[in-house]
Fold this protein.
Amino acid sequence: MADYYEGIGRRKSSTARVRLWPGGNGTIVVNDKPGDVYLAREGDLDIALAPLRTVGHEGAYNVTVKVHGGGPTGQRDAIQLGIARALVEIEPEWRSQLRQFDFLSRDPRVKERKKPGLKRARKAPTYTKR
């Protein structure tokens, strides 16, 4: 049996390396801070831990996460994907259950590049007739 199970999650420009330690008491540590401190926005921690709740093992593993890049939403979703991938590594039968709730899909949407002559990716300067 392995010491821990690892999953890599990505979203936008965020990358999270998630480790699930079996036989724990359900603590989550993100970048050496408690999970509820690092994911301070209301509901973020619940969304990140949703795959554990789906398979019914919310308090069975200690979760340690190293995440970098992006902002709060991208990091939260990267952590969620990393947890789901680590759970599949633990028990392959959970794949269909996690797939049903879309936890194993990497969201491909990223910020669109700015085009020349425009203010942002698609916003054009205001048209003036005179």
In short: The chain has five helices and five strands.
